[in-house]
Amino acid sequence: MHKATTIFTQPPSIVTSAAVGGKTEHEGPYGGCFDKINDDPYFTLDTFEQGESQLQKQAVRIALEKAGLTEDDADVLLGGDLLNQCVGTTYGVRDYQLPFLGIYSACSTMSEGLLLASFLAAGGFAGLAVAVTSSHFCTAERQYRMPLNYGGQRPPTAQWTATASGALAVSPSGGAPYVRGGTIGRIVDMGVTDANNMGAAMAPAAYSTIREFFHDTGMKVTYFDKIVTGDLGKVGSRLLCELAEGEFPDLRERHADCGLMIYDSDKQDVHSGGSGCGCAASMLCGYFVPELRAGRLKNILFAATGALLSPTINQQGETIPSVSHLVWLSSEKGETAQ
Predict the structure, then answer these.
(1) How far apart are CA 17 and CA 290, in angstroms?
(2) Residue in 11, 1, 9, 33 with CA at minimum distance from that of residue 290
(3) Residues 99, 104, 107, 113: is their CA dihedral positive or negative?
(4) Phi, psi of 132 (to 5 degrees)
(5) How far is 234 from 211, CA to CA, in rounded Å?
(6) Is residue 161 within 8 Å of residue 137, measured between CB atoms?
(7) Whole-model pTM?
């Protein structure tokens, strides 16, 4: 075991996953990958925040049902979101009455949750560990920027917070995809202060973690079909490839960003792309996990990224520290390749 990277000798399995989204996500290029679409941003409830909780409740239920499981089969649930005190999660999953671990890693919450669930499963501490996260465009705008009815102008670097949720379950045994290992990210702060330019704040963190994985393992970028980041958007994706150009020139052609995938930037006015916990989570659970399970992808690195700011501290002039956690997912069990 390296300082930040773990490679599992007995890789646990992602036995099921589900993605839930809203109307804008359904209209994107991967709209068909969602298990359920909600056209009403309120989810028939009274507030957007209550609606976001419904996203998580639906995602967990659908993921379990797809595998013929119930909440009684799960040993622990890990979850978090972007709202103050992670209330989107706690109110969303409280009815399940499962042992609960609340986590927070901003938009990298799914990669953190998947890593922790895999540690629990591989270590024999959980027979079935469920991880879930979500985001909602309207709740994020109200908390981090301005209420929608304010009508504030969004700069070109701004990203569109996905109204989406992803949930998955990890078990010590099962079929593909397998969690072969992962790298716990370090906090990186390059002094960015603009809360409307998350891509610039998060790209250095993504590069730091990806670089550490390759240094720790000695593996090559060319071994992987895709190096997937979470919602760096146009600005952050460009910066990541520029940062990697000297040491990992092959990364550019293998890089895919969930923030660029989830929406059609030519047809949808999302500025620099998608963001939010639910962006990377829904693309992982709705697209990448099924592709790995079918064998159309063999190996990917999933490195979701999170900007660890709060509105209060940002208004005080603080910079935006960021983190990226990485998970190696594979369609096959096997020896580590060089």
Answers:
(1) 8
(2) 33
(3) negative
(4) -145, 150
(5) 21
(6) yes
(7) 0.95
Domains, in order of start, for the chain = 5-171 (3.40.47.40), 178-330 (3.40.47.40)
**Token code pair at residue 111:** 């990669």
Q: Which uninterrupted H or E stretch holds 77?
A: strand 76-80
> How far apart are alpha carbons 315 and 264 in whole angstroms?
32
Q: Is the separation of the CB atoms in 227 and 221 below 8 Å?
A: yes
Q: Which one, of 299, 59, 270, 323, lies nearest residue 166 by Cα?
A: 59
Distance in angstroms (rounded) separating the CA atoms of residues 97 and 315? 37
Q: What is the rounded distance in angstroms from the CA atom of residue 326 to the CA atom of residue 183?
A: 5
Task: Find tokens 């949720």 and name the residue.
Answer: 165
- Residue at token pair 């569109």: 160
- DSSP one-letter string for 154-219: PPTT--EE--EEEEEEEESS-SSSEEEEEE----B------TT-HHHHHHHHHHHHHHHHHHHH--
Nearest alpha carbon to residue 37 among 57, 55, 20:
20
Contact call for residues 305 and 157 (beta carbons, < 8 A): no
pLDDT digits (tens, 9 = 90+) for 60-118: 999 999 999 999 999 999 999 999 999 999 999 999 999 999 999 999 999 999 999 99
Helix (H) or strand (E) holding 227: strand 226-230
Residue 167 · residue 109 · CB < 8 Å: no
